[in-house]
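pasting input
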Amino acid sequence: MSELTLTVMRLGFLAVLWLFVIVAVQVIRSDLFGTRVTQRGARREAARPQQAARQAAAPPQQRGQQAGGGGRQRRNAPTKLVVTEGTLTGTTVALQGQTITLGRAHDSTIVLDDDYASSRHARIYPDRDGQWIVEDLGSTNGTYLDRSRLTTPTPIPLGAPIRIGKTVIELRK
Amino acid sequence: MSSTTNPSTHHTSTIGAIGAPSRRNTELALLVFAVAIPVFAYANVGLAINNQVPSGLLSYGLGLGLLAGVAHLVVRKFAPYADPLLLPLATLLNGLGLVVIWRLDQSKLLQSIKQAGTAAPRQLLYTAMGIALFIVVLIFLKDHRVLQRYTYISMVGALFLLLLPLVPGLGANIYGAKIWISVAGFSIQPGEFAKIVLAIFFAGYLMVKRDALALASRRFMGLYLPRGRDLGPILVVWFISILILVFETDLGTSLLFFGMFVIMLYVATERTSWIVFGLLMSAAGAVGVASFEPHVKMRVQAWLDPMKEYTLSQAGVGGHSEQSMQALWAFGSGGTLGSGLGQGHSDLIRFAANSDFILATFGEELGLAGIMALLLIYGLIVERGVRTALAARDPFGKLLAIGLSGAFALQVFVVSGGVMGLIPLTGMTMPFVAYGGSSVIANWALVGILIRISDTARRPAPAPASNPDAEMTQVVRP
């Protein structure tokens, strides 16, 4: 076999090998998966109230989504929960009408890595009107809204700090 | 594919899985590519050595392609959401290994010294057995969490496997290290299988104990010091790995098990102090054993001064491992782009050229560029394992995936580091490429478990049921 053919094959093989690596990396790049949260209604309406008129004319299916909450969406409804202090600082959770549990238990929505948090510490949920409520679940060290310890389920004002152990969270628009 | 939740069922927004990636077609395309590369290499070797396309080209290509195809169909049926890269990457490594083993079979030198010229067909047989085990894992292990039930049985099983080579009459002392057993004419390396079983034990154990290990600690000089009694498990594992080192004289196995435990402990507890302790303890253990155990001591000497060992061995006065130096020369003569497949002289390594030292052949014939690509492929397998661990929803699956991929990474490091002279040489095999039944079969099983975990992790979550709490609870306002 001629020297030239072998050289071409040698370099060609290396090129093919690297091509495989590059293709594999491209597959990884396109391999995104996880949770997609699609905001509907609340944010759009809060951000652009002038669209309300247009939405009235929207197809019934789309209106159905927005009426899903039962009543009308509040103007100042928070759309996300932000952790502002503690090991999870910067974490945000989109508020989608589901209950958010906080605690050290593995199945909590926000798993706190905090010695001062109980395993099922508190939960945050919307009531019928879409107002978000925080409730302490009988935790050892208590849940604080602003400076006061919670004794009953309490509505959360926008931006008010909720303290659980070393973690502080708040609701934002 | 994508499972966006029905828009009309929710309040103001929906959660949906992005792409819910069943990437089976991507996997198939990559798999075809991964089979084509070894076929190309095979033709290349034949042309370089015998001046003709080897006659076995069709049968090897079909054999590898058939095995990969069956594995792919089983993944498609039983793990449809699994990671698309693990199977093609493993297939490519296995195929390249087959080609290089076949290439070394062709060497007249190796044929003349008992290193029989029939290693490649046997390796193909081992590959078939490995893929059979892979399929068995995927079919019968419907949910990896089942393994959690066998935490302590796994511990006993792993210890049994590890100690098996020490049983008189069963264990075989091959070339100084006692890590083989011989059963019915086959020599098996139980350590390869113990790796997987031990990962199951560590994952189950750490999942239960991690809070105690992570939280009950004092802070001292920036490190979390664990309580004395929590040190128990790490001390026990350390002691066992020292025992392996002393009685089986195998640095690699011992390092692999201790390292895997430290990695999993760190991931479970997030305490850097465990890594510090682990490094200190393994350093102390290795230095201690190397100073009095002759076989380990010899390996360390060959690592510190391979040239001296080589000259001694050439002169016929002692000297134990001329191969270390031969391997280094092989890497050196390969240069950047290598000598081309089938055109190197790595058969001069003679002993274990197609098992422990197979990386030297890659280094010589594919050069730095080829070795880099090879190590990157290993790196990608580890990356997919870690990605699986990140995506897994249950702590047991997370720990198991990180343990298995950590063990895989450590093994690659220990072998390639040993062959390249970074650390003392150990008797372990490069996963998938090196000749050896136990290694190939065990690593296919390992990839099978990773694929099972990744299938569970990437399976789109069922649409969240509307939470009764949110609507039922009567809110009492103060």
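fyi Chain A touches chain B through 61 residues (CB under 8 Å).
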